[in-house]
Amino acid sequence: MSDPQTPIISMRNVSKFFGDFQALRDVNLDVRLGERVVICGPSGSGKSTLIRCINRLEAHESGEIIVDGTVLTDNPKNLDKIRGNVGMVFQQFNLFPHLTVIDNLTLGPRRVLGLSDADAKSRAMKYLERVQIPDQADKFPRQLSGGQQQRVAIARSLCMEPRILLFDEPTSALDPEMIAEVLEVMTELAASGMTMIVVTHEMGFARRVADTMVFMDKGEIVETGAPEDVFTAPKSKRFGTFLQQILNH
């Protein structure tokens, strides 16, 4: 178990390039166990790249990332350990279309964790109950609404019982009426004490759920703070302008 005083995620001077383009510029960020961090900022500011570096979906060029006491490198042993502790929910759901909901959920626990079919199914049903769609277990993703598919994706991540959940704009592909149902599930997860890093423009959710707000622009973390502080008196002009644009949209 992590020492509660030690960050469960620590990023030190992390930089990331795509060719000549610098997506992350000397990023420093600590996330503590049970903390809910919301990352916001304009398109192209590096938000998604930052969280994709945490589970090595993108490899950073310089700096250091430590996740739950393990330094993130290309070493397969380290990578497997970190990915076992870090779940990720994507913008586009990323469900296997040829598998039923229950098979999408049991695949990881069976293959990666070595659970028996019965135990994997029992765990899958537990998390489908948690996201309030146990009745959809035998359907295929195409038979579900976008909101239901995203709730399946959240349940699939939970089936691996990670210590950290990353969300990459989880509601941006959804119709407005479906956004609320997904945010409700995420709010309940936050209340349960799950460590979460959420990239989102949903400022109402951020205000309600986040312990820490992080504002990024041009690959840099420009400002961090508690929601009540940054919403009422952002320190940087860039963040103030961004908030006005989002809240007036």
From TrEMBL:
Keyword Mitochondrion among record annotations: no
Domain annotation ABC transporter: ranges: 9-243
EC numbers on record: 3.6.3.-
GO MF annotations in UniProt: ABC-type amino acid transporter activity; ATP binding; ATP hydrolysis activity
Family membership: Belongs to the ABC transporter superfamily.
CDD domains recorded: ABC_HisP_GlnQ
Record Pfam families: ABC_tran (PF00005)
Keywords, alphabetical: ATP-binding, Hydrolase, Nucleotide-binding, Transport
Statement: the UniProt record of this protein carries the keyword Transcription: no
Gene3D superfamilies reported for this sequence: P-loop containing nucleotide triphosphate hydrolases (3.40.50.300)
Class of enzymatic activity (EC top level): hydrolase
Protein name: Polar amino acid transport system ATP-binding protein/general L-amino acid transport system ATP-binding protein
Stretch forming the signal peptide: none
